[in-house]
Specification:
Blueprint lengths: L2 H19 L4 H5 L9 H24 L14 H9 L23 H18 L12 E3 L3 E3 L1 H28 L2
Antiparallel strand pairs: 1-2
Helix pairs in contact: 1-5, 1-6, 3-5, 3-6
């Protein structure tokens, strides 16, 4: 997918997430299906936070003209190369132990989530035109995928949102079963 296609797909997925929010109460958005499982609201906050403070922040680091903020992190790992070859994250559930650094806070309101999602779309549109001239030797390491360029960090936002559609559907089913 090129940048235009990524933006179009990302906007569609984001609009889907926003429309889905309308069908839930705040109580439902905060309901966790299990002790160590995220609520729908936490999943939304994870998507927003990962995009703004990890993926797009690292894309910006790669775009820095002097490269001081970007590191040449080497090549992608085998896993990273496979993911970018496929254009998607594998359809497997990834669980990490709860921790204050990684576990998202519960949302304060639906408006907070909608505004967060829209702010990611705005940042994507701000960064997209800069990708054409992005230096390919400026990479920032992803913990699992290895050194990623600005364009790869940008693509990862859309892939990550798409990947979490499965979790959203699973959490939605859990809520429907509990009503």
């Amino acid at each position: 997918m090129n940048t235009t296609e990524i933006l179009r797909s990302f906007e569609e997925i984001t609009e889907h997430y926003i429309q889905e929010l309308e069908g839930f109460s705040m109580e439902q958005l905060k309901q966790q299906p299990g002790e160590n499982e995220w609520s729908l609201g936490q999943m939304y906050r994870h998507l927003i936070g990962a995009a703004l403070y990890l993926q797009l922040a690292n894309a910006e680091r790669c775009l820095a003209p002097d490269g001081n903020d970007a590191v040449s992190a080497g090549e992608k790992t085998e896993v990273g190369a496979a993911i970018f070859e496929q254009g998607s994250l594998p359809p497997v559930r990834i669980q990490v132990p709860p921790s204050p650094q990684y576990t998202p806070q519960q949302p304060e309101s639906k408006e907070q989530l909608v505004e967060g999602l829209k702010s990611v779309v705005r940042r994507m549109y701000e960064i997209a035109p800069k990708l054409e001239n992005a230096p390919l030797h400026h990479t920032v390491a992803h913990p699992r995928f290895g050194g990623l360029t600005a364009e790869e960090w940008f693509k990862l936002v859309e892939m990550h949102y798409r990947h979490h559609l499965m979790q959203k559907d699973r959490l939605k089913q859990a809520l429907l079963l509990n009503t």
